[in-house]
Every structure is written in C-alpha cells, then in structure tokens.
Amino acid sequence: MPPFSPEHRHFSTAFAHSLVGMALVGLRGHWLDVNPALCHILGYTRAQLLGGTFQDLTHPEDLATDLGLMARTLAGEIESYHLEKRYRHADGRLVWAMLTVTLARDGDGRPECFVSQVIDLSAQKAAQEERDSFFYQSSSMLAIADTEGRFLQLNPAWTEVLGWTTQELLARPYIDWVHPDDVARTLAAGETLRAGGVIAGFRNRYRHADGGWRWLEWGSHTVRDGRLYCTVRDVTRQVEDEEALRSQEEKIRLLIDGAHDAFIGMSEDGVITEWNKQAELTFGWAASEAIGRPMDELIAPPRLRQLHLDGMRAFLARSTAPGYSKRTEVPALRRDGREILVEFAVGMVPHRGRRYFYAFLRDVSEQRRYAERMHYQATHDFLTGLPNRYEFMGQLARAVDKAARHAHALALLFIDLDGFKAVNDQCGHEAGDAVLTEFGARLGQAVRRSDLVARLAGDEFVVMLEESPNMDREAREVAQRILAAAAQPYPLPETCPAIGASIGIALYGAGDSADALLSRADTAMYAAKRAGKNRLSIATESGDVQSAVDGQHLSGDPGAGI
Fold first, then answer.
1. Would the pLDDT of 167 be above 60?
2. Which listed CATH number (2.40.50.100, 2.10.50.10, 3.30.450.20, 3.40.120.10) goes with 138-256?
C-alpha cells in the first residue's frame, strides 16, 4: 500500500496533530479534509473549507502555476511539487505559504487525491518586507551586486548622490563609472571580495551626471550566494578635509559596515571596544555591559575558550596585512546560557599603530536546524525512519559508480513481505504499520553495520552490501538472516496471518546501472515468490534467475541448492 495513502491510520494521526497545515485535496481542487493547523493558517473553520476549493482561496497570480504543476503531477511527469504561493485569509489579508503537494494513489495505482502540506511563510515575508523598506528608505547608499561586475539592486540614495537614474547605473558594469586612476585598486578589491574577504573603508571616485567626480567609501562583503552587499557613503567632502580627521573616520566606517549583522570591535588583546544594537539582540548583553570585557569570556562557551584564545594568537601571527579576514561558523553563548550557532567573520585593520579587530556575527541556528530537519524529512521514511527511495537511489548510484571505478563488490537485496496484504486486510492498517516498523528494526539487526537498509514503498525494502571478499556468499548469509528475522512472530493478535519474506539478490556486474541492478533484484524477488515464498533467489548478470532456497534450509550451507 502506498506510504501516503489517505486510508493509512498512522497518516491520519499525524495529519490531525501536525503543526504543519495539511489537507487532502480532490483531483479537481475540492478540500476533502483539512487539519486544525491549516484552519489556523487560513482563518477558516473546517466546515467552511470543506465547502469549497483551494482555487477559491488562491491568489489569482499564483493559480495558473499551481494548476499547471497539479496537472503535471496527475500526468505522471513529476511525483510531487513545491510552490511558494499566496492564500486569501478569512480576514482578507494575504498569507504567504510554502506548499508541498504529493499525489496519493489507491491500491490499483490510480490517482486518488492530493496530500498537501502548507507552511506559513508570512513572518518570513514580513521580515523581508521590513528589510526591503530599510534598504529603500535608508539615506545611505546601499547596493547589492554580483561578482561579475554589475549592480543588481540600488536604493534611491545613489541617484541623489550621483545624479544618474537607477536604470542608467544598472545598465552598465560598475567599473565603467570608476575614475581611471582608481580602476586597478577597484578591481583588486573585487578580487578580495570574490575570494570571500571583507572590504571596509575602501574609497574610489565615481563619475557624477554633471561630469564631475564623487568620492565614495565602501563597506562590502560576500555572502554565501555569491552576492556582494555594499554600504556606500559619499565622502567627497571628507576626502578634502584635513588628514587628522581621517583616522577617526576609518573607525567610524568599520562601525557602520554590515549593520544588519551583529558587529563587535576588539582591541589587539581581545577586549571588546564596540558592540552594536544587533549584537545586543543576538547575545542579550547591553553595549554598556559588554564593552571592556574580554570577548572569549563573554560569548565563547567554556569548553571552547582556550581554543578561541589559541585561534586569536594564530590569527594575530598571520594577519599582518590590512583587511585580512577570516569567516567560519562557531558555537556562541548568549547571556541566558543558551548556545547558538553563529556565522562569524573576523578581520583586522591597523589603527594608530595598533591592530584593531572587527567581527560580524549572524545567528544561523534556526536556519541550520530547519535545513537539517527538511533534509531528514525529504530523505527518510516517516514510519520506519529508514532512508526512503530518493535517498537510497542516490546512494546506490554512488555505490555503483564506485564499484565501476574501483572494481569493488556490490550486492543488492530486494525484499518483499509475504502475507503483509492479508495482515492489512484482516487485521487493519495499524497492524500493518506495526509489522513494517518491527521488520524495519529487525532488518537493521540482521545486516552488517556497513550495509545500507531502506524502505522503497509499501512492504518493499532493500539492502545494499559493499566491499566483501566473497560477496556472493555474504549476500546469501545476510539474506538468510533476514528470512529468519522476518519469520519471527510479530506483536499482532493471534488471528492475524503469518508474515514471511521473499528476497531477490542481484550482484553488481560490469556495466550495470543503479536502475538495472535494482530491476534484476526485483525480478529475482518475484521468482522467489513464484517458487513458494519465504525464500531467496539470485539474478545473474544476464537476467536469468537461479533456483530459490526457502527459509526452511537456513541451518545448512548458505550455498546449498543455489
């Protein structure tokens, strides 16, 4: 039975109690069932939703895309899809959401309904709008550029300072606006950014629409998507001022650089000298409490403080050139004792004969947890906790490639439970779930620690074995242990049918693809079923299937009868 069947009792329990909005949607878009989380997201009662369709609540600009993906899923072109879209809330506002849709099929493989998961993105979108509002309303010149030499986004301050329209500035590479005497330095700064460095206090001249030149001062860094984030000031008047003012301005530039991150300034011996508002929010310490204290004692977890001090000493020894910087991810300690993961970039500039350190820190804890959670859910079966088909096929493809390149042995066991459908039909899906869960656990105990176990779908499982000196014998022995494990009693009522397993084995042969290997193992498994079930059979490289061995001969030589 398909793992996401709406009739699945385990699914029904998860459906009702999930914190994620979930719905069963008819093939024409009618709500068949909705969980409380979805009602909360959209602001409608269950009865209100069940009286309509998802089309009724979808923003018109998003509807065509959603319907197109739904049609492709029904046509079998894709198995599922993800879409950021807008729903109309009961109070009239728009709700941004991440929609994930999977097609559920009945026991005969016919489309039955769609299983939809809806994650509310409204808070994230609101935060993005706030950031955009700050970007466009800031009196500072703010820019986002790519590493190929073009601006991607500019705020209105650029037009106020340089006289060019935004369209004119975006239409040409930014080096075209730079004074000829500053081109070489500007290109060198770009190389630093492309290498992952941070530029602070860099100055060059840009052409004004009136034919003159304006001195601009840049604070830029590269984020992981390859874009450059720049805070720019018109410092024409300051450049013309006395040299005595410039030293103070260098420090000011550092303080405004990367204002969207927590910013910490430090003396050469690691004592905090600057602590911005974002640092207060990130770590819980007010600036008045943080300034003057050693950075390692304030935010480094106790177990990492010596490592931090050693790292600072090594950084001091290497960072002799102005602008030297280093970026990494490290655990950090908040005032309330909670550890967070921060993206941490530290750099150095000389200031009045001493070295001045600056650090940009961004809390990436939730981002990391979310990514790990989403990856696990995407690659593992929700019932057994085993890798799913998507994850298994990826690992199988890599193993086949490795076997081809290094002539390593590889075997695949395709397992189908005998009697499982009867258990489902006679004892209910809850009993079937118990069998799948128990058998998944037994599989893990029957194989080697190095073997990969996965659930493909329904009652189909696979085991991949690698790097054995006698893979033919090893595969049979593992298969026989699995047959024995499958035949053991399950925590079911006595009236439930007995459970066993049929196993097909395919050994990797030169030229095999992952799909070909899986197909041969599948063929061998069906041969074992036709031979009487509760047995194993082996598919040769040519596709022939050798005679099966049943589970009653497990105490003898594993090669007997094959």
1. yes
2. 3.30.450.20
